[in-house]
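Bug report (template v2)

What were you trying to do?
Predict the complex of my protein with PBG.

What happened?
Run completed; filing so the output is reviewed.

Input:
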Amino acid sequence: MGFPITRMRRMRGHSALREMARETRLHPGDFIFPSFVVEGEDKKEEIPSMPGQFRYSVDRLPEMADACLAAGVDKVILFGIPEEKDPEGTGAYAEEGIVQRAFRALSDRYGDELFLIGDVCLCEYTSHGHCGMIVDGRVDNDRTLQVLAHTAVSQVRAGAHMVAPSDMMDGRVRALREALDKAGFPETPILSYAAKYASAFYGPFRDAAESAPRFGDRRGYQMDPANAREAMREIALDIEEGADMIMVKPALAFLDIVRRARERFDLPLAAYNVSGEYAMVKAAAENGWIDERKVTLEILTAIRRAGADVILTYHALDAARWLAEEEGGT
Ligand code: PBG
């Protein structure tokens, strides 16, 4: 039944019709806000390549948390940036480590009101900037597992509600699961960065976290952007090892992977709208070339439409505010 009986435009002629026909909706509850914590006091430093994003010292983290809660975003993932780095990344699991102190401060102050996620990786803590331990010039998979497990347990002890391994070592989800169970945290869930690609879109994050590798690159452990079937194997393995939620990262150049993962797996699915994606929108908007608000909401809607339940995004607070304004009819 084609034209003129069928007219697609009929359902587009009034905002009420468009609302009824809408297939995908954004909600602040779908967002996780990534944030950075640094050593020192009274610090709130803007990250040059990520305008509008800051690195906070522990004492000023409540400013970030209050802004999240005021916007209706109650989930954050924290990245710690230590002052001292060493080849083993010992700062990642130190009792008085930067991210541990941050979790303690936030969980003391906000309890369960603010959901705290720990990014489990070594790249911010190692002097060489790789995500694992170096043995004979290579990132050694199996030696890294214990350190990651240790890191996860220390974050949960400090108050993290969930841990998210982002290192791409084989077997890390099982290592974390076993260590958490043994430490008395069988109920703490794991959000696995299951399909994480070796992407140039992480550039601004590496400036922010001072975590760029000093030699080589991450192609020996992160995935080749050319591969889609392989992502399904990565995700299936992480589920077998005990992942409770899975992630595809980055989001925009990998929406086909998000879609495939959605169709194939029934776990809650997250996508990471990464630093380079954020920086591109900011740069174009600052030049007056695009409308930041419209472009951002379009991007986030597309990530949800592709199949993600949850989006990690630096635009979480802005987007939540914009959505609230739209509901208010402005
Ligand atoms: C740490 C980690 C990275 C990101 C999240 N966790 C960087 C990397 O793998 O180099 C990137 C996030 C972003 O670009 O926003 N391993």
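What did the reviewer find?
The radius of gyration is 20 Å. The first strand starts at residue 31 and ends at 38.
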